[in-house]
Amino acid sequence: MDDDLPVGRRSAMFARIDRRAALQLGQAAAVLPVFAGGLTSSSAQTPGGSTLPRASTPPQNRSVRAFGARGDGIAADAVAIQRAIDEARFVQIPEGNYLIDRPILLRPNTTVEFLGDARLLPARDGVTIFRSEGLTPGGRIVNPRISGAGRKRVTAFELESFRNGCVIERPMVEDCDRGIVLKSLCWDLVVMQPTIIRTRLPIVIADRSNAIDIFHPALDGYETGIVIDGTGGEVTTTRIWGGYVQNGLTGVSDRSGLGTLVYGTYFEGNREVDIDLQASLHATVDATQHYEKAGKAAIRGKRTQGIVLRNPLMASGGRKIGLLDVDASNHGGFLELPRSSAAALNRPLGIRDGIAEVALELAGRFQPQLVGSRVRGDGRMTTTEGRWRISGSDATVDIEVAWTGHSGAGGAVLTGIPREVQPVSYVPRPRTQVISEGVTLAGGTLVAQLNGEGTDVSLVMIDSAGKASLLSLPREGRLSFRLSYSLAP
Fold first, then answer.
1. Could you give the 3-state DSSP secondary structure of residue 469?
2. CB 360 within 8 A of CB 337
3. Rg of the chain taking only CA atoms, in angstroms
4. pLDDT digits (tens, 9 = 90+) for 52-101
5. Closest-CA residue to 406 (of 460, 304, 478)
6. How far apart are CA 322 and CA 406, in angstroms?
7. Cα–Cα distance between 94 and 245 in angstroms, integer?
8. Which of 29, 179, 201, 405 fits as disulfide partner to 196, beta carbons 3.0 to 4.6 Å?
9. CA–CA separation, 482 vs 480, rounded Å?
10. Phi, psi torsion values for 91, nearest 5 degrees
11. How far is CA 328 from CA 119, 285, 307, 354, 433, in A?
12. Phi/psi of residue 85, nearest 5 degrees
C-alpha cells in the first residue's frame, strides 16, 4: 500500500460511560428520602410511625465464577453463565476460555462485561453463543470476545427485539460463520467498534430492525461485510460511521433498505464491489474511500430510488467498470463529485446512466506569489489576492498582485495555485488578458497562461506578429486577471 494513501484504521477508543445509568442514578437520588441508617434495610419509619418500603441496594458486579463457571476450556460453562445473567444485573466474565454448548439468553437491563482475555468458545458445531428472545431493552455487552475455534456454523450473536438503548461495545469475533445478526425487531441499538475477522457474514441487519448505528467497524476476511436486508420486513436508518471493511467479496450489501447511510468508511480488496445498493430507497454514501484495483466497481446501484453519492474517492483505478456501476434501472439519484486534482484518482468513472450529476460548488482563497523563472528572488508584495471557485467541472481563478523592489530575474511566474483547481490531467494552456499598471508592454499584449499541470501561471507577452515570450520580471508593478477552464480531462 502506498504511504501517501489513506489506510483504514480503528479510531481512538470511546469513553466507557453509561450516560443513561448516570442520569437515572442522579434522578433517583433527587427523589428518594434520606433516612438515618442508610438504605440497607427493607423498610423505614415515617415521622408518623407508618412503614415505607426502602429502595434496594443496587446489585453489585457478580462474577460468573461465583455461579460455577470454570473458564478452563474443558468444562461446559453455558449453564453457569446463564445462571449469573438470570440472577444479577451486572455480570463479569473473568479471563479464561469458556466452552459454550447452548445459547446464552440475554436479559433486559443487564450488563455483561468481559475482563482481560476472557473468551467464549463453542463446544460443538452449530452453536449460537448469545441470543435474545422477546423484548430485551437496556442490554449492554462490553468487550465480548468470541472465537469459532475451528467449529462450523457458529454464530456469535443472534438477537431479536434487542432494543431501546442496547449497546454491544467493542466486540471481537473471529473464525465464525456469522458475527452479529440482528434477526428481527432490533431498534435503537449501537454496535461500537466491532472487530470481526475471518467470518463469513460479520454483521447482518434484517426484518424490521431500525435505527442501528455501527461505529468504526473493523471487518477483514468475509463473504459480505455488512448485510442490510429489508426484503423480509422494512429495515430503516442503518448508519455506518467510519472504520474499514476489507478483503471480502462485497463490503456493504443493502437490499431494499430505507435511509441507509455509509459515511467516511474505508474499503479495500473487495473482489466484487465495495458498496452494493439493490432496490435501496434514499440511501446516502458520503466521503467513502475505495482502494485497490480488485472488483468490478466501487459503488453499484440497481433499481434504487433517490440515492445520494457524495464525494467518493477511488484511490486506485483499474476496476473493470470503474468508480460507479449505476445503470438506467435507478431513478431520482444524485452524484456530487468535485473535479479537483484528487478526483483524478476516480478514473474511470464507470456507468452512471441512472444518476444525475449535480454541480458541486466549491470556493476558497489563496495567496499567489510572484517569482522569477531564472532567479526566484523576492520583493515587497503589497497585494496578494487569490480566489478560486469550482462549479461542476469548471474552475475560475481570480488573481491580483502588486509589488515593489523585486530581486528576481527571468520570466515572471505566479505560484501558489491551490490543488483544488489544478486540472486532473494535462490540459491545453488556457490564457486570458491581463490588466496591468506600471509594467512596460512595448506594444504587445500581456496574457496570463496556466501551465500544463496547473501548478502556476506564467505571464506571457504576445507581440504584433503573434510571437509569445515570457515577460521579464519587472521590479515593480500591479496586475490582475481571471482564468476560466475545465478541470475534466
1. strand
2. yes
3. 32
4. 343 344 455 699 999 999 999 999 999 999 999 999 999 999 999 999 99
5. 478
6. 49
7. 30
8. 179
9. 7
10. -115, 135
11. 49, 19, 13, 4, 44
12. -70, -35
DSSP string computed for 115-172: -TT-EEEESSTT-EEEEE-S-EET-EEES-EEE-TT-SS-EEEEEESEESSEEEES-E
Select from 93, 87, 97 the least CA-distant residue to 115. 93
Name the residue among 247, 303, 254 with its Cα closest to residue 279: 303
- Residue 476: its H or E element: none
Grid coordinates given for 212: 442501528
* Helix, strand counts (H, E) of the chain: 2, 50
Mapped onto helix, strand or coil, the DSSP state of residue 252 is strand
**Within a 13 Å sphere around the CA of 438, how many CA atoms are in the beta-carbon half?**
13
The pLDDT tens digits for 313-351 are 887 766 889 899 999 999 999 898 765 544 457 778 889
Concatenated DSSP letters for 254-270? EES-BS-EEES-EEE--
Cell of 282: 434514499
Question: Other CB atoms closer than 10 Å to residue 163's CB: what's the count?
Answer: 23
End-to-end CA, the chain: 26
Separation between Cα atoms, residue 48 and residue 51, nearest integer Å: 9
Rounded Cα distance between 391 and 31, Å, is 59
pLDDT digits (tens, 9 = 90+) for 261-316: 999 999 999 999 999 999 999 999 998 999 888 889 999 999 999 999 988 988 77
Share of the chain above pLDDT 70, in %: 83
SS3 223: coil
